[in-house]
Write the C-alpha cells for this entry.
Amino acid sequence: MPPHRWWGGFFFRRVQVNRRVFIFANGALPDPERVRSQLEPEDILIGADGGTQHLLALGLLPRAVVGDLDSLPPSLVVTLQREGTIVYQYPPDKDETDLELALRHALAYSPQAIRIVGALGLRLDQTLANVALLAAPWLEGVDVRLDDGTEEVILIRSEATVEGHPGETVSLIPWGMPVEGVTTEGLRWPLRDETLYPDRTRGISNELTGPQAHIRIRSGWLIVVHRRNTEYVKRET
C-alpha cells in the first residue's frame, strides 16, 4: 500500500460505518491490559502520534496514525506504512493537538462511540485540554469517553450510563456553568432534579450501588469521572 499523507485541512470523507473507534493518545496508560480487554475485533484503532507506541506495546497495529509525528521515529513510520497503516502527517506548526486531529479523523468512520486511551496524566495542561475536547460541538451525538483502564471521563449533554461495580467512585463535576435537572439512578446518594454548581463540590465521590448508574441532566455540561476498583480490574484482566 502506498503511503498516504495529509498536510492541511481536516479529513472528513465518510467511509464504512463501524461501531467503535479507539484513539490511543500519548499520555499515561496505567492499566494497558484492562484496555486490551475492552477491545473487540471490529474496533478501529487510531494512533495519535506518540500514542501509537501504546498500541505497538500491546501488539496491535493501528488502522491510521494522525499527527505531526514528532514523537515517532521515521523508521517506525515507514514500517507502519509497509504494514498497511495509513499515515496522516500534519506540519508541526499547527493550531490543534494531535489528539484533536485524531478525533476529527475518527468521525470519518461514522462511529457510534469513540474511546480515547492514554489521554490522562503526565501533563496537567494536556489532560485539561483533553477533557475540554469532549465538549466540542462536532462530537455531539457520539458517545466519547476518555478511558485509561482505571478511570473513565464522560461529558454528559443529556444522559449517560456508567457501568462498573458496587462501591466504585463516581464524581459529578459541572463544566463551566451550573448544571440543572441532575437526576441519578444507581448511586449511593441520589439526586432528583438538582442543580450542581461549578464552584461547589457536592457531586464529588458518589458511589455505584450496583452494576450501573444512569445520569441525566436538563441543561449544561456535566463531567463524570468513574474510578474503577483496582481489585475488580485485576480479576477481569
In short: The chain has two domains: 1-149, 150-237. The radius of gyration is 18 Å.
